[in-house]
Amino acid sequence: MSEKKTQSSHYVSRVATKAWEGPDRRLHYFDLKTESMGAAPSIRLFTQEEPLADATEHTLNQRIEDSLGKYVQRCAKQGGGLVDVEGDDRMTRALVALIALQGVRTRQALEPAAMAFSLDQMLANERVIDQLVDDHQREYVLVGAVLKPEEWLCHPSVGSFAIPVLDQQPAAAFPLSPGTFVALVAKGANLTHFDQLVRTTHTMGAFSMLGGGLEHKVVVPASIVLSEKWKDDAPGLAAWMKETRVTGRQLFNLIGKTALDMGLKAYHYDGR
Questions:
Q1: What is the C-alpha radius of gyration for the chain, rounded to an integer number of angstroms?
Q2: Do the beta carbons of residue 98 and residue 174 sit within 8 Å?
Q3: Residue 181 · residue 174 · CB < 8 Å
């Protein structure tokens, strides 16, 4: 007997992108291929051809997505920079699972032929999520961050973006609101430097725009697109996005070069 399936599944959850929506739940995005602005109802964006089984959707909602809004509300009460993620084990594990599973969700949707097994098969046993979280917590620390009020993030179409870390692999960061993200940072990383990077003006926003690989769109907050400055100038906003992405690439690679000059492990960004 075949597993009951939902009519459509989002590989980037609508719960995760809700804070970027405008009127009528529309998402505004910068298309990396055409380098132009576009918009579509969130129900139509980031969907996969083969929907997930209802049981899988239920597991993802119950184990991960129900905690996202609560965490954003908690962060809203704190100032800029790194914020404490500890104190609620269920929430912490949900956020780790969110980042750990996002790559699988994206690849299944955009490169299904590359998958050895489906997400439905993977999550048929919920203990797989617990094992995945345990494995990641042995290697990474979960870091939460809140940007300054004037700063904002894009939401990449692969769900997460990379942040360079001195002498470590780049951190995988997942935006939860235009001003909030969580990231998995390798244990042993210099979190003081990471905090300084988070507090550096426009840096996180530029990194969230970079894309690369399977990336094809970055969602821009509706409050920015519909602001007085940009609401009648989509070409101007697209040109600004393009320029800011160049700056982000340069900064990412400068950090890598600095690490290399110091004799540390170094990474660079080579996407478009």
A1: 18
A2: yes
A3: yes
Length of the chain, please?
A: 272
Count the Cβ atoms, other than its own, within 10 Å of residue 146.
Answer: 21
Say which residues have a Cβ less than 8 Å from residue 113's Cβ, sequence separation at least 6: none
- pLDDT class for 1, splitting at 50, 70, 90? very low
pLDDT digits 0-9 by tens, 202-261: 999 999 999 766 778 999 999 999 999 999 999 999 999 999 999 999 999 999 898 888
Instruction: Taking residues 50-69, report their average pLDDT.
Output: 87
Nearest Cα residue to 152 out of 113, 197, 208, 233: 208
Q: What is the mean pLDDT of the chain?
A: 88
Quote the CA–CA distance of 93 and 76 in Å, as a whole number.
20
Q: Which of 59, 226, 253 is nearest to 162 (CA)?
A: 253
CA-nearest of 101, 146, 98 to 120 is 101
Beta-bridge partners for 166: none
Q: What is the pLDDT of residue 166?
A: 87
User: E-strand spans in the chain?
Assistant: 9-10, 26-31, 36-41, 47-48, 81-83, 140-146, 155-156, 161-165, 168-177, 180-186, 217-220
